[in-house]
Amino acid sequence: MPPPAADLHIRRNTVLLALCMTAQSGMFQLVAAISALTFVLVTGVEGLLGLGPAIFLVSAALAAGPAGRAMDRFGRVPVIAAGFAIGASGAIVTGLGARTVSVALVLIGFVALGAAQGTVGLVRAAGGDLVEPSRRARGIAYVLVGAVFGAILGPAVFSPIFAGRHLAPGELAVPWFASSGFMLAGLALVLCVRPDPRRIAELITPPARAAAPASATPLRVLVRRPGVAPALVAALASFSVMVAVMNLSGYVIVDHHQHHQSDVFPVIGAHVLGMYGLVLVVGTLIDRIGRKPALVAGLAVMSASCLGLLVSENVWATAAFLFGLGLGWNFSYVAASAELVDRTEPRERGKLLGFSDQLGAFAGAALALIGGVALNELGVAALAIGSAALAIVPALWIFQRRAAQPAPALD
Question: Domain 8-206+217-400 classified CATH 3.30.1250.10?
Fold first, then answer.
């Protein structure tokens, strides 16, 4: 018989993991807002404005797979803590690169920040560990809701830093230095999570599953399980479109619409609010209506929001459409994550979620790079229409597929 929830400190651990998401969200709003601008201002090459976010995303992709496998082997806490430590160092190195106008340092900083994102983003695996399968989407949502507070803290911290400053590489160093504080706070918080969420998942495993084989299930077997393919496709499409549009939106606002750099943060804040503000409601709704409707609806909302960028030139209209992009991501990504967790054992899910994040980040990097070139050469219409198409096509494919049978009680 599993220990009672009180003895496993599930509620406390859920709160701590949610606060970790607060730290991550606050930090990576800055990445979304000024990574492209930092790269352009330091290198002086506008035609490669998507390369900065692409480097960040490729690094996240390369880190996500090994981080997921490490989580299955060593537990969730040590890996997430390492991600926060790497993120703090990456923020400092990026700030030094901006201050000294050093392309090499900025590149190293972006690589470290990307690795941190790819690692810390797997915190949702820990959220899925803490609940039974019937409440899986809500369990993940309880952790992700912490990002709402990061959406508030990010603009509150960074917007005043930009007030009255000229847009120059050296001026970008201060917010990058300040952002390391978010990562250090996340490091301190995750080290307080005990017992490790993977251990909790093992302790609440039903007796029928207690004798699960110790050998690792190959990834090729995991991806062939019923329900996994649609979830992977939805996660790939939703994550890649979301991060590409989000990372390029700062450049659109400042360069194409001629707004002030500080105007980027309300837009990014609205986007993050869309991603996480209603996540508790969304998580409950996903558990009730099922994974497939949530996957399709989320991708459809993302597509419509991307098309909205065609007609939005003022800050508040752009913020509204970025909110919609985040809300659509919320539905599709949480549903995909819940489905992938449902289809795996506690010692398998890090591997599968890491693979999912790896695919999404690689695709996001390609979209950011291609989107940056298209934005620079063809304008906002190319970015809006292309990203809308990349969201709606997978939605139509998932819609016409037969829904998979409910996952067996793997944990």
Answer: no
